[in-house]
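Notes from the 1:1 (GR / supervisor)

We went over the backlog. Supervisor wanted to see one worked example end to end before approving the batch request, so GR pasted a single chain during the call. The sequence is below; no edits were made to it. Supervisor asked that the structure be written out right there so they could see what the output format looks like.
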Amino acid sequence: MTYDHRMRRRARDYAAASAFLVTFAIGGIVVTLLSPHEAAALRLWASTNVASLQHHPVPALVLSAFLPSGSPFTWLAPIALTMFAANRAVGTARLALICAAGHLIGTGVSEGIVAYRVDHGSLPPTWWHIPDVGPSYVAVSAIVVAVMLGTWLTKATALAVFASHIFTGLTSLHVAAVGHLTAIATAAVLSFVLAVSQRRTRAGPERMTAAPDAATRQAPVLQPASRSVADDGGQQ
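Structure output shown during the call:
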């Protein structure tokens, strides 16, 4: 394997993680360069709250994953530790699909609960405009992939990142906690389906290889005819 081939293969193995990490870092730099007022306005416009999902859902769903809600670079280490391992485990296209599903479904369920509660009077109408940005739904989806399908070192690293306060407020249906739980459940289901599919794919060639071996073992072995009888007859 040539050096160029190894580099291209490595780039493919980590394409999704690299693209997400670089794009999120750019989002963090943009937020840092803006004034506090401008940064708050950008976060609010890109938030996946009920109002944004009604007026500009696609830009909000895309941009919200790449804008930090707090310190711009707090998530860089967790993203690097989990997404690269998950990318290596399942590949670029599958990781992108699982993380996108976790982000979209996590957002839909959490904000759908907010909309329901506002409509029924258990939350004030201001909750339609709450700030809701950050990469956490994507990150927890990657953590699930790493835990379910990665190596033992990957599992340990992912679980260390996973042991944070991502479920704080779940009993009170806090938006982030509900979204995290939904994203994790979504990623777990998709990872399970992928694991079953991979096992069946590997089992197919193994069965095909085992079948000829079994036939070879069961086939009768033809021995050359003994000449002892003929020799005895000649002697008689």
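Supervisor's comment: The radius of gyration is 28 Å.
Batch request approved.
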